Amino acid sequence: MVVNREVQESVKRKSRAFKDWRVRQAQREEEQYREEEKDSRRKVGIGIGKAIEQLNERLRTKEGEKDIYKISKLKKKQKQDLSQLVVIRDRDGNILHRDDDIKRIWRKYYDQLLNTENEKKEQKEAQRVEGPVVEI
């Protein structure tokens, strides 16, 4: 967001008024802080509105159409949770962290696991036990 000088000064005045109010604990300083806070919120809101208007105007241009894809890609990356970052190694010991590489490795692993025949061991015939089973 492009912040103009007027918004920056308003926020600084609000910050100074807050510090004065906390130090002096006077009614007059509290009223001054509340006024500066209202003014600051209003100016920040106007600044955000202007920034959104400028962005919308830019998105309507030919270069803006390309920016739409960049913005959506950026938003997708921002939504990814970094605490859930998955890193695995392939058979050669290379570290993989991209989603498509990890999916490919898991696909190979499960394909091999589920589509191979297991060797079956021959079982010996056991002797039959006749009569009631003795309780232990």
**Largest beta sheet: what is the strand line-up?**
1-2
**What is the number of strand segments?**
2
Describe the biggest sheet? 2 strands, antiparallel
Mean pLDDT, all residues: 84
Per the principal axes of the C-alpha atoms, what is the gross shape? elongated
Radius of gyration: 34 Å
How far apart, in Å, are the first and last alpha carbons? Answer: 79 Å
Strand fraction equals: under 5%
- Which range best describes the helical content: under 10%, 10-25%, 25-40%, 40-55%, 55-70% or over 70%? 55-70%
The DSSP helix count reads: 4
Number of domains: 2
Spans where pLDDT lies below 50 across 5 or more residues: none
Secondary structural class: mainly alpha
Question: What is the succession of H and E elements?
Answer: HHHEEH
Describe the structure.
The structure is a single chain. This protein has helices at residues 5-24, 27-59, 62-79, 99-114, and strands at residues 88-89, 95-96. It is elongated, with a radius of gyration of 34 Å. The chain folds into 2 domains: 1-79, no CATH class; 80-114, no CATH class. The longest helix has 33 residues, at 27-59. With 136 residues, the protein is mainly alpha-helical.
